[in-house]
Each structure stands twice: as C-alpha cells, then as structure tokens.
Amino acid sequence: MYLASVDRPAVGRTDRTRRVAGTVLALGTVSLITDVSSEMVSAILPLYLIAGLGLSPAVYGLIDGLYTGATALLRLVGGYVADRARRRKAVAGIGYGLSAFMKFALLAAGTSVPWLSAAIVADRAGKGLRTAPRDALITLSTPSESLGRAFGVHRAMDTAGAFAGPLVALAVLAASGQAYDAVFVVSGCVALIGVLVLVLFVRDQRGPRPPATTVSLPAAAALLRRRPIRMLLAAAVLLGLSTIGDGFVYLLLQRQENLATGWFPLLAVGTSLTYLTLAVPFGNLADRIGRAPVVLGGYAALLAVYVTLGSGFGGPVTVIVVLFLYGGYYAATDGVLMALAGPLLPAELRTTGLGLIQTGQALAYLVSSVLFGLAWQRWDGIGAIRATAVLAALTLTVAAVLLRSVRRVGDPVG
Question: Does the keyword field hold Transit peptide (predicted)?
C-alpha cells in the first residue's frame, strides 16, 4: 500500500523527489509488469508470423498495423468515458484485463490467421482503452512544470519491462523446446499480475464532479477549435505517418546481418536498454529546454535509423547504431509528447484530449504500416526503407513548423 500513499511527499525531501507522485510510481510498476508480458509476445511475433506461418511482408504489415492502429478509436472512446464517469482507473483496468486475457486467446487461435488477427486486435483494444486514462492519471497527479520528468520516470519503468520481456521469452523458448505456445501462457499469467497491482496500489484522481456541459460530446469536439491542440494533432498525425513498426526495423536488421533466429528477440532488448537509459534524462531535458524540441529531436533520430538501414552498410557497428538511435527516438517522443499535450487540455477533458492525440497517431501508424508492407513486397526491404526516409524528412520539416506555436503553450519555457 505504500505506493498509493506517497502522492504528497514529506517536507524536506529534495525537489526532484517531490516531483514524482505515488500514482506515477504505482502506474510505472503496472506498466513494467505489463510490458514484460507484452514484449514477450512482440519479440517473437514477427518471426512467428513470417518464419513460422510463412506470411508475406504485406500480410504482416496489415497485421502489424492492426496491432497498433485498428483499435485507435477506442483510445478516444476510452478517454471520453473515463472523463465522463470520472473513473480513469476503472477504464484503465478494463483495458489491462482485456489485454491479459487475449494472451491466452493467442494460444487458442493456433495457426489460424483470422483468429490470430482477432486476438491481436482485441489485445490492442485493451491498450487503446488503458493508454489515455493512464496518461491522464499521470498528468493530474503531477505539476505541469514536472510532467517531462514524471513521464520519463514512468516510461523508464515501462521500458524496464520491455527490456526484460524478450529475455523472458528466450528463457521460456529454451526451456520449452522452442514452443511458442508456452510463451503465450507465461505472458498471460504475467499480465494478470499487472492487473492485480493496478487494483491494489493505483489511486484514482477523481476530483469534484464537473458541470454536465463541460464533459460532453460538444465540449470534446470543441477541443479542436483550440489552435494549439489542432496544431499538435496535425503534427502528431504527420509524424505517425513516417513511423513503421518495430518488427520491420528488426527484420531488416536480421536480414542485413544474417542473424540467427535465436538472436532476433535480443534486438528489442538493445532498443529497450537505450530507452531505459535515456527516458528520465530526456524527460528532465524536456522540462528545461522545452518539450517540442525534444520530440522533434527524437523523430530526427528515427530518420537517422531509416537512413542507416537504407545505406546498405552492415556489421556490428550498424546494429549498435540503429538500436541506440531507435531507443533514443522512443525516449525522446513517447512520454514527452504526452507531457507536451497535457497543459494544453482542461483537466475535466484531459483523458479525452490525450486520447484524441493518441488516436490520430495510431490511425496514421495503421496507414504507414500497411503501406510499408506493400512497399517491401514491391521493392524489397531496402527500397521500402529508403522511400520511408524521404517521407520522414518531409513530415519532420512540416511538423517542426506546426509545433512552433505549440511550444509557447505546452512547454515550460518559451
């Protein structure tokens, strides 16, 4: 119960310690456990679908897009319901629970692509429901000037789970004689532990009930009449269009370097290690110099990943550079973008607004993932990644212009 009781730190602690609320630490613990479960599956899924089931890159691109983007509207719906009912923890809990049970559904689906796709979509539906309420709980329990650090701490804990997940998957595969079913079972059990921690230790941020007119569909739609929110949403969508799935990045690396199948999950570990190392420093940096520059720097690192992969150069140095830049991209963008959005949104519609931003990005990701899979099938992996690099350079330039107006409102500095 300790985690839920430290939202108001004792007088005399350092300013840095006061900035991390108990809600952030509790949610970070939930995310850590849940990401062990999620990354166990994510680490083996590309190989399972392409090498194990023999799917084409185009079909994998469709499934990967569904994995993140097809349930995007649930982020917005979940955000609105959480704000309307003032039960952000309950909505997040439903999302975490749904994802946990879908790990067992993957086992039941066997080798049926339609049933696998359905289980994957339902799993991501759970993520869609929980993400906005979880991030809203972080913003509502943290002073606006410390949001970068709060999200950095949360994402660092989240990424510790992402770091451990592939290693656990490798251990399970080794112990089970390379049985993918065993990974799905263990993953589901771990996810259920995360749900239990949420129920026991996370404190909801309910507050007084707002007037009915402030949390309504017209009020939610009115968010788009605010210029900074429109600019941020447009920038998020553009940047999402230049984002391809982790699986594609790792598959390109594996094929370029001729890595053995057993090494494949360790590529995700390398990315997670960098993310884990940089999440808090980049969060602190965003609070000091501004969140928009850090987000743009992260997408510049992603562009560098594409350029490196498209260069055709191989060797251990290429692998290290790609994984370092890719982890840096996540550390600079994932939580920092939500920290940038938080102060732009009224508290009573915070979850809805964050869900709106996340929905825009997820729908853009769905489009980009499908298009990348088709481009791979048409031009091969190198041709597809080079085309993506050109697109990323264009979207980054336009997004930088859009975010200039957002900085003055959403950043702690001018």
Answer: no
